[in-house]
Every structure is written in C-alpha cells, then in structure tokens.
Amino acid sequence: MAGQTEQNTRKGENLLQTPEQKLFFLSQQFSPVHSRKLGFTRRQRDRRDLKEDENPEAKARRHKEMELKPLYKELLYTIAHKMGKPASAEVFTDSQLHQYLKEAFTMTDEEHNGLMEKVQNTEPPIYCLMVTVKEAKEILGKDVSGFSDPYCLLMVLEEEEEKKSSRAKAKPSKYVVKVQICDKFLINYGERARGKKRHFAKVSLTQKLEEIKTNLNSLRRMIKEAKKEKGTDDFLGNIVLRLKDLHCTEDNWYKLEPRTETYPNRGQCHLFLQFIHKARDGTLSAGRNAYTNYCGILQQFVQAYISKQQSSAPWKGALCGEAQTLLELYATQNDLSPFLQDLAKWVAYSKLYQSLEVDSSVLFHQLTSIEYHWHQQELPYQQKQELGDSLHGFLQYGLCLVSKYRDIFPPTPSATPKLHTLLRILVQICKTQAFQKLNPANFELHNEVHDAIVTGTEEWFTIKKGLHQPMTKDLTEIGSALSRLIAEVQEDIKHNKDVWNRVFVSAVQVDVFTVVYQKFDSLLAKEVKATLSIMEDQMELNLSKSLFPVYLSLQAIHKDKAFLQKRGLLQLTNFHEDFRDALPYWLNQAFSTTQDRVVRAVQVDQLQPLQVGAVPIKHSSSAVDLVACIQPICHLWEQLSWPDPEEAFMLMVKLTEDVCKIVVNYCHLLKERVRVLSENSDHSIAINMLCVVVNDLEHLRSVLTRLPSQLNWEGLRIRTQSVIGQSQFENTLHSQLQQAKSILCKEIRSALDTLGKQVDHESRALVLLTPLWQNSVKILYQISTQHSQQEGLMVFCQRLLYTLQCLEQCFHADGNGLPQKALHSDEYKNLKAHLTHHSLTSHQLIEKFFKRKISEQVNYQGEKYGAVTLLTSYRRSDQRLHIEVLNAVSLLPMDSNGLSDPFVRLCLEPNHVFPEIEPRCTQYKSCDLNPLFDEAFDFLVSLDQCQTPGACLVVTVLDHDTLRPDDFEGEAFLALEDVPGVSEQEGEEVDSQMDSAPEQIRLPLMHPKPNEDSILKLLESRRGEREAQAFVKKRRQREKQSQEAAQQ
C-alpha cells in the first residue's frame, strides 16, 4: 500500500472539510517568529479557491457534490465488493450499512438510488488475498542434524460438487507460490472465485527451524542444497483455511496438521491474512487517493455520531458498529497500513478538539500509536508533511489556548483538569520522535508557554482596563474604575496562586503565579502612577473614599510577593507613598463615623442589664456597642499596615488619641442619658440605672486596658526602635491612655457617690441582695447539673441541698433580709426539687417509682390490653393479705393461632419492704382470651409493711410458652393501703375478731413506655448499687416486652 499511496496525488485533499470548519492557525494566530521556533519552513499548501460571495445553501450544495458524494460512492463500492467478516462481533447486512450511510451523509432516497446505480455500473476490482508468513515454532527436525530448512507452499483450491460414486477431489488453481519464512505475497483469485461454493487456502509448510543455543563452539549446522527437485522435499505439516470463514484481516497462530497420525504434534505457524482490492475504479472519488478518502470518511462518521449524542460529556473516541465496520472494510480493501489509519485519526481528532469536546485519552492514544509506528514503518513524503503540519498546527492552537486560559479554563473543578490535559498533550507532542524529526529547529515548550502566558496576561489586562474605563472625567469615577480594575487583578492573582499554578507546574514546570505576578506588578505600577498623577493637589473626602479600596487591593497584592519563587525588585514596593494625601481623610472619616455610632448607641440605650442566654451581663447595650464601634479603628490600623516606621508611629498616636476622645465623650453622653431617663422614673429604677452606669464605665476601663494589645503596641515598638526612642514611645502613647483612664476613674467615683446617697437601708437590701441571691441559685443549679452521671451524686446533691437551706436562712436573716416571697422564686423551687430528687436513696427512689405507677394506674382510662378482676382483703388478726384472682378479660392474642395461654403472677413490691415474700402464680388456661381462674392466695405480711409508702401488689398477666420465655400481656398496680383492712385510720377502734369484708376490684392492664422514667435513669447511673441495677434491669426488660415500644 506504501507504493500505491506514494503514486497517488493529494488532489482534492483540502475538500474534506467545509470552508467554515477549516482553521488556519499557522498563518493567523502566531507571528513568523513562532513559525521559525517551531521549525515551520514548508510552504503552505494551496487550497481550492472558494467563492466568498456564495450563500450558505450554495456552499452546502457544492460541499455535498464535490466532497460527500465521492466518498459516498466509495463506501457503496466497498459494500458491494466486500470480502471477509469484520472484526466486530456484531454483523450488519448490506441494507443496514446502506441505511446508516444515508443518515451519516444526509442523503435522500433519490440521491442514494442514483449513486447506487453509478456504482453498479463500475468495473469490479481484482480480489486478492495478501498472506504474510511471519514465523513458526515447535516444528519437526527432518535432517540428520536434527534441524530443517523450512519453506512454504501456498495454494488456493476449489472444491467441486460431490459426485455420486466418490468424494469430490480438490483441484489446485494456477496460483501456486513458493516462499520463504517472513515473506509477503499476493494470491490473485479474480472475480470467478467469488461465486464458488467453497474456498480453501492450503499452506503446506516446511517450517522455520528453531534456534539452538549450545556451548559447543565446534558444533556446525549441516547445510543442505538451496533448491531440491519437486517431490523430494520432506513434508512438515499443512494448514487448511476456508476463505469464507476468514475475517477481512486475520493475524493468528495456526496448528500444523499431519497427513498421518505418526507425528500428531507438528508445531504452529503465525500467519497474517488480509483481503484487498487491486485495480479499483478510480473515477468514484475524482482521483483522490485512499488515504485522503479514509480521512474524509472518518471525519464524516465522527461528526454524525457526535451530532446524534444528547449528552454534553466529552467524546471518547467511540463510533457506532456500522461506522467501525465500514472503516475497517475500506482500510482493508485499500491496504491502508495501521500507521496511516492512526495518522488519519490523529489529524481528524486533533481538528475536532479545536471545535468540540474531545476526551484527552483519544489524542493521547493516537500520539502513542504514531510514536510506536514511527519506528516500525516509513511514512510516504506527503503523509510526513501532513503529520508535521498537524503537529505544528495543534501546538500553535494549544499555545493560543494557553494564552487565553483565564477565559477558556476558568478556575473550577471541571475546567482545570482540561487545562492540565491540554498541557500534557503539548508535552507529549514535543517528546515524540516524529515531531523532533520533522521539526529540526530548537523548540522549547517551557519558553513558549512562558511567552504565551505573558502575552495573554497583557491582553487580558488591556481588555479589563477597557471594560472599566470611566464614563466621565470625574476624579471620583476615575478612582472607582481603578479600584474595580485592581480588584479583578487581585482576584486573578489569587486564582493563579491557588488553582492554575498547580496545573502549570505539574504539567510543564512553569510557575505561572510568578510569571503573572511580575507582569501585573509592572502593569499596575504604571497604571496607578498615571491615575494618581491626575489627582495630584485635588484630594477631597469623596475622592479619598474611592482610593481606599485601591490601597487595600494593592497592599494585598504586595503581600503575595512572599509566594514568589524568584525574588527581585518590584515596582510596587513603595506604592504607599502615592496615598499620603488621602491618609488624613481616611483617619478623620473613621473617627467621625465611630463618633456618630456611639451617639446613636447611647440614644437607644435603656440602661438595663443585658441578658444573653443563662449568663447575665452587668452592663447595658451602649457599652457593648461602644466596643464594637472602637473595633473598626483598630481594624483600620491593621488594614493600613503602613510600611514606613516613623509615619506608622504618628498614625498610632493619632488613632490612640481618637479612641481616648471617643471614650471621654461617651462618659458625658451616658451621664446625660441617665439624667433624662431617671426624671420620670421610680426611685428604685433610677438606682438600678446608676448601677448599670457604673458597670458600663468599669467595662469601658477594662476595654482601654486591652487597647495596647489590640493595636499591637509591642510590635510597633520593635519596628520603630531604630527611629523612635523608648522614652518618646512611652511618654506619647502611654500618657494618652493613662489620661483617659483617669477621667474614667473620676466618673466612676462620682457615680458611686451619687448611688450611695440615693440608696436607703430597705431598698439597699432589695437592690443588692436580690441579684446576689438569684445568682447564687443559678450557680448551685449549674453545679448540680454539670456531672449528673458521676458516682457519689446522691451525697453531692445532699450537701448542695444543705447548702441551699443554709443560704436561704442567711439571706432571710430572721426577717431582716430578703422576704420569703423573694427567696422562693421559680428558680429556687426548681433547684430544690432537683436536689431533693437526686438526694434520695435507692430504696426511696424505688418507693417513689411505685407511687408513680400506682397514680398512673388510678388515672388510666380504657382497657386497651385487657383487664383482671381481683377480690382482696387484709385480716389484721393473723396479719394475712388475702388475694383471689377471679378472671381476666379481653387479653391480647400472643400465639400464632390467634389465642393465648394466660396465667397471672402476683408479686409484692418494693422488694426491700417484702424481702421474704415470693411471687405466686395461677395455673395457665389454654387457648383462652377471657380466662376464668378463681384461685386464692394468702401472703403473711405485717400492717406496717402494707402501710409503707409505695407498697403495692403488682399483677402481671403472661402468656405461657414451653420452648421460649413467656410473653407479656400486661401489668397492673394495686396500692396495699387501698385494700380493706389496711386503710383504717389510726385512732379508729378495730375489733380484732371482726375482719373487713373482701372487696372486688377490676384493674385495667397497662404496658410501660420505654425510656421515659427519670427515676430509672437516675437509678441506672448508680453503677455501684447492685439492688438498684437489678431493679432497673428488670424494668428495662419489661419495657422491651411492651407493645408501647413497638408502636414508637
């Protein structure tokens, strides 16, 4: 195919694309200097003259006639004369391939039929099978030396129709070729071979001898005669292949078959088979060569595939099955080498990359393939030129994208990987042997990328400067425009430092941050100088406001110099000198703004203590606002960060003086505010206001104490020690601060004197003791709730309860302190209840638990889980508690048959009150939801036990199970003090011989709610008490069996 390609011309090559799709980067995007660096000295190819005045419809028609239809006819011709099976697993019929062609080339049925008729009238090609015998292994040694001198005999045989009497014999055709190993040859079997029933290729092979490694230098191979008479050569094996079973391209190892079974294992032979055409009709594509047609077909298929895709994801090189089949058939029939196919794909895909989203792996794969084939096969001259031009064009296109990386690859997670991929592709191109061979000039990608970044940065700055050009000649507008421009530059520098720098350094080892920073440094210095020169001697307040953002942005940019890899003299080093005229306006603006905020804060202050959460604040809102108002002045000092040490000291003196003025003025405003509010207020309210004022002034004094650390006086002293002496520093700044503190102390003493004169004995107790008592109660509550799960909490709470009682007596002072009403506030009641609850012993808690259960039983409504009926009485004569279990009704079904086997368990609780009383159980009733028990039980218990707080009878109904634990039906609690015979009041005369009559009671069954009992949680926290833990475990197990848990 190499010879065929070299013989054809490139006529019509440039017609593969529409005029709108062609990109001439080589002549338009870069100067001759870049062309020289790239080694581009070849003359640009002439392209067909295009009529610029044609309308789009005419261009489309001419494009279809001159470019698409010739390719369409070539593909129809390929389908009509195809041989062999495609490599893809999916097989397509001719009609399917025709339908795909019509869609891909947008041909109508009429156009298709007309072109099909033309193809059918053309001359058919000569069908050829190209066979390459590559190598053999494990063949037999036929000579006395143990080796063989193998060669191949190739024949194409035709099998005739079977005869009735004997089997058909294969007749050899006239094409018999004798070749050596590693030869390539063609077998031309013409048009007649296509109509036969069966086709075979028979390779009778005397294989290539295996190499023998031996340490005997004297061993020589015996040399046989180079040529022997036919019929005297030894048979080594043969391979029979059916032509209709072959793919259009085969590259496989085949096993050598013997004639007899004497030596069945005769080795293998590696063959490469390919069906090709010779003498194809050259009128179909107007004389264009096969490689050019392949490029056009590939490009058309890719465009058709991408246009049909709905996804916005990058194209990853995939094509539909029909397109792959047609490309394979066309390349095989025209004997296009894999090198030429990969070259065509690179050319097509690199052009698509310039207009569509193409995945980088597609280009990387083609570059790798071209690099591999470059060492294996020599390209024709014209294809070399095309490869060189393509690599040139893509490099220049890539450098053009690099220069505009800000717009094309924004700093987003989805765009930066694309920039990294582009740079890697450029690096890969420069590393390929093809590029280095075809471009002898010295080309340094690092320098080219550096120049592209510099050029792109300058262009970007020029564009942004034009966008932010002021609409008028007003100086304030000019300052605002400069501020907006520098803000964009600052943002761009940040993106280069944080995002793009990693991409460029990892891909091409270019520190883009340093390159961009140095370029912006010179551009901004020139722009700032030019703008501020216009404003010279015209500074005023509004103009200074517009310049403050400029100063801040320049300062932030100047601080980024710490990240530069290469340090040098920067033009923005002394940028602050240009803003000396605006500095006084900035300081006055900060002072006046802060002063106004303080006045407004005092005007809305009601002089009431603030309450933030559970922690009270002693001062009022204006004191908090004053601290917030002073903070911007401290922030201004940090923002300015004035570089000159002597000027920075003067700035600090001015700022400290302003803060002291604001504090003194606040004192006067606060005194006036308390006078206004107390005129029509109650006497006690006025006293409270005076207390708040004292607290405000004290808070302000503490703020002034922290001022040196907030303004970092120590850092300033270190900076200025070479120009400002220690004594001057102390006498200036510290004296200012001390003077302001003296004024505050004087005002505090004055307020305290006034407060002392107005507060009498009675109001003093209420005013001073009430906050102290409330604070004490809150502190005790916080302490009691901090470590609720610690061991020894009971003793701890008992001590706190004792402390609370002592404090109550102290604050009441036998009626001389706070009254009982003031002492027993809601917070006090909650604290006392909390401490009392946590001070109880475990036995007391268990008794309290059963009291709560008894109360819950009394208030329980309905019979959701059924009910149980009892007959109860207590005989004091023999201290016997008599319980009769009569029946149970409406029980829940617990078994799979929809019934239950219920029984009743009776237990006296708490266990520490009845330690020797064992639970009693009734007999279980099989398959009954309304069982009748009628069983009686007697418990020997004393009257004192029955009258113990929390003493009760726990009635539990269970479902009997044999192989698993009994199911829980429900439980009920009966207070023993409600049983007849127990509930008689003390002092009543009770006849020991007359016992109380039994009383019938119906108890609804209940299910406990899980994790809702605070008593169980408290008992659970007492890890060291076994009885408490056993009780909790028993109740928790009952909660797991509860159906209330399943409902939640």
Automatic annotation (TrEMBL):
Q: Which UniProt keywords apply?
A: Coiled coil, Cytoplasm, Endosome, Exocytosis
Primary location: cytoplasm
Q: Which GO terms describe its biological process?
A: exocytosis
Q: Write down the InterPro entries for this protein, in alphabetical order.
A: C2_dom, C2_domain_sf, MUN_dom, Munc13_1, Munc13_dom-2, UNC-13_domain
Which family is it part of? Answer: Belongs to the unc-13 family.
Question: From which lineage does this chain's organism come?
Answer: Eukaryota, Metazoa, Chordata, Craniata, Vertebrata
Top-rank lineage group of the source organism:
Eukaryota
Matching entries from CDD domains are given as: C2B_Munc13-like
Where are stretches of biased composition, namely Basic residues?
Answer: 36-45
Q: Which residues form the C2 domain?
A: 864-989
Q: Cite the Pfam families for this sequence.
A: C2 (PF00168), MUN (PF06292)
Q: Which GO terms describe its cellular component?
A: exocytic vesicle; late endosome; recycling endosome
**Composition bias, Basic and acidic residues:** 46-62
Q: Where is the MHD1 domain?
A: 548-670
Stated name of the protein: Unc-13 homolog D (C. elegans)
Where does the record say this protein resides? Cytoplasm; Late endosome; Recycling endosome
Coiled-coil stretches are 202-229
